[in-house]
Design goal:
241 residues; alpha/beta; globular
Length: 241
């Protein structure tokens, strides 16, 4: 994603009064309002928690913690994706999530939903978020890597199985151990602190932007070479009987 550094340069309120990214599709400026995030999501000063996972990854515990964080951060909203494995069920999932948020004392308009981003802008549009909150049971995988590459830090926990340890592996590979929470309370408090102390969030984002260039996690040439060596070794074992 050679365009990502350029677009994320304009994605932070600390850099410019107008929060926007540059669309790679038509070179226009794109704001949260252009993505249809609603009256709260369109405000430049709002704090955007994001989770771009497919909706089937949602679980009650993490959703409850996100709502707790929203109550503690009155100027925040939660940006979710409408994308689901079955398109005919996503509209019902959205309604159910809004009802669940209301049961936690969070106004439904503080949840914002967007459709799948265009291919050329799949990564840059993510940079309009402030902080990714990940699902513990089934982490963001490709989605998480794309969001980190867009310069958006994450808060997550690591569970005991593969699907729940992907994000922690991403974080450790970049030396950003502070993104991993060790309990639900730590998770919620960490989200709250980064939402209230945005200078700390900005420092974390700057480290992320630097580390992504140095981390083996984003070194695709090295990954391809490793896969090539592995395939040759496997074939050698096969050829030797």
């Amino acid at each position: 994603y050679p365009h990502a550094p350029k677009t994320t340069e304009h994605a932070h309120p600390w850099h410019a009064p107008d929060r926007y990214v540059v669309s790679q599709e038509d070179k226009s400026r794109v704001t949260r309002r252009d993505l249809g995030l609603g009256p709260i999501g369109s405000r430049d000063e709002a704090f955007a928690l994001c989770n771009f996972n497919q909706l089937y990854k949602m679980d009650p515990d993490s959703f409850a913690v996100w709502n707790n964080a929203l109550r503690r951060l009155p100027n925040a909203f939660l940006w979710l994706s409408r994308v689901s494995v079955r398109k005919d069920t996503s509209m019902y999932a959205q309604g159910h999530l809004q009802l669940e948020a209301a049961s936690h004392g969070v106004r439904t308009e503080r949840l914002a939903f967007s459709f799948k981003f265009p291919t050329d802008d799949y990564v840059p549009f993510r940079a309009l978020a402030d902080l990714m909150v990940d699902n513990p049971a089934y982490n963001a995988h490709t989605t998480g890597g794309d969001t980190l590459w867009a310069g958006v830090p994450s808060v997550l926990t690591a569970t005991r199985h593969l699907a729940g340890r992907a994000s922690a592996s991403f974080s450790h590979s970049m030396g950003l151990f502070e993104m991993v929470a060790h309990s639900w309370k730590h998770y919620e408090d960490h989200v709250h602190e980064l939402g209230k102390r945005q200078k700390r969030l900005w420092a974390l984002r700057k480290r992320l932007m630097k580390r992504r260039r140095e981390s083996p996690f984003f070194d695709l040439d090295r990954l391809a070479e490793g896969q090539h060596r592995l395939a040759n070794a496997m074939w050698g074992v096969h050829a030797a009987g």
